[in-house]
């Protein structure tokens, strides 16, 4: 089996996430793509994020009509910081040696791979699938120099996909300021945000 892994806070999930996952699934002939909301990300300790329940529900709503996609709560079930390497180790134990793993991320995040916890082990456990950004060059030579035990040419997959230039941070700000977000995230997710009064602040007047 070929299993894609799409991690993130998904606060909220948006069409950029969905598009990259769909393109990866098609181009790499993946059998499934797991959407894994982060549990306790070490790089966001000073950021307030929506509850696990809200983030999971938004993912469920966003992926409900796509049989390729599946929600996994593996990181939310684990105590302590959420490290990618720990998630990959757990997935290997769960799915067994007959599964090939493809960790999907953006070029900006991949550029910081050497700062991640045990980056060499990550690439031993999974192929790194990087969604390219127009005008952005991934520092492949720098990454390879920092990963002497890895043949990056065999473990790195560059994915040229149509880009939706949007971030969860930008969406939260737009929602708080009553700026339209239609076509940037699924309508079902926006309906849930309105229903649960997420990202709106005390002075929300839309």
Set out the fold topology.
Blueprint: E1 2-8, H1 15-27, E2 32-37, H2 52-63, E3 69-71, H3 84-95, E4 100-106, H4 107-110, H5 119-125, E5 127-131, H6 140-146, H7 152-155, E6 156-159, H8 168-176, H9 187-196
Helix pairs in contact: 2-9, 3-5
Overview of this structure, please?
This protein is α/β, with parallel strands linked by helices and 206 residues long. Helix content is 38%, strand content 16%. The chain has helices at 15-27, 52-63, 84-95, 107-110, 119-125, 140-146, 152-155, 168-176, 187-196, and strands at 2-8, 32-37, 69-71, 100-106, 127-131, 156-159. It has a six-stranded parallel sheet with strand order 3-2-1-4-5-6. Strand 2 (32-37), helix 2 and strand 3 form a beta-alpha-beta unit. Helix 2 packs antiparallel against helix 9 (187-196). The chain starts with a strand and ends in a 10-residue tail after the last helix. The mean pLDDT is 92.
Concise structural overview:
The protein has 206 residues and is α/β, with parallel strands linked by helices. Helices cover 38% and strands 16% of the residues. The protein is globular and about 55 Å long.
User: How much helicity do the residues have?
Assistant: 25-40%
The shape is globular
The number of distinct β-strands equals: 6
Secondary-structure element order, as H and E?
EHEHEHEHHEHHEHH
Largest sheet: 6 strands, parallel
How many DSSP H or I helices? Answer: 9
In round numbers, the mean pLDDT is: 92
Strand content: 15-25%
Radius of gyration: 17 Å
Distance between the termini: 47 Å
Strand line-up of the largest beta sheet: 3-2-1-4-5-6
How does the helix and strand content classify structurally?
alpha/beta
- Regarding quaternary structure, how should these chains be classified? single chain
Which runs of at least 5 residues are low in confidence (pLDDT < 50)?
A: none
